[in-house]
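Box 3.1. Reading complex inputs
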Amino acid sequence: MEAFLGHYNYWIVVALMMAGLCTVATSGNLVKKVIGLNLFQTSVFLFFISVGKMAGGTAPIVAEGWTRYSNPLPHVLILTAIVVGVATTALGLALIVRINRAYSTIEDEEIRRADLHRLP
Amino acid sequence: MEYLINTVLLALLAVTAGAIAYLRNLFAAVMLVGIYGLLTAAIFVILDAVDVAFTEAAVGAGISPILMLAALALTGREQTAPTSPSGAGIAIVLATGGALVWGTLDMPYFGDPLAPVHVHVAPRYLEGTLSEIGIPNAVTSVLASYRGYDTLGEVFVIFTAGIGAIVLLGNRRGD
């Protein structure tokens, strides 16, 4: 039981990451692929924050009466990663809108077929 | 109690992720992305990462779904081609997942105070934050002072992404 609870967070992280990977790999729709990338990314955030948690600790804000704090470094890394993540999501979605303007579709099979037709 | 909430919220998160991967209606999937972001923010509060929870609630449950909805409004709501998971795709996902789970078996238990991540570097920042920076919140002092240049790099990334989006979408006369 202790071993299960000790690893439960990490296993959920793996499950989320695989859900994201499966969406990216098997879905033909480009917006769905971006959603899958988001799932994948958030699973990494959860992993870092889980590693930084200390049992019996509190948020890393120094205050009287507390001696145990969770690790602030993963929090800093993930704060940066969340903001960078939304920037890349926005750029990816902009690319998708541009692709839709050029091909009138966002399904990767149809885009490939349109490319084959354009070949001389 | 804290761990019970953590366990339940993580299970809910896994269910939401499965539904997002399964759904073909993109509008519904984006709505679930908002719920997913909110659940993640709640878990971050339980795991003592309050600053991260603020950002995740704003970005994961707010800005990301809005950006995706905007993209859907300009493209289309339904995924036309059926999602047909090929055998090879499923095999790769299962093999990768199995390898990752195997890798976690060596890790220190969740919350272990003697885990290597807690005994090195981090205590230095927690001890110095009041005397050196004068801010009780260690996350703020690392983000804005000890490693301020990382935050500067983050600003560059956002600036570059903004320029990229403007270049991609701005000029409609070129079509």
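In summary: Chain B has a mean pLDDT of 88.
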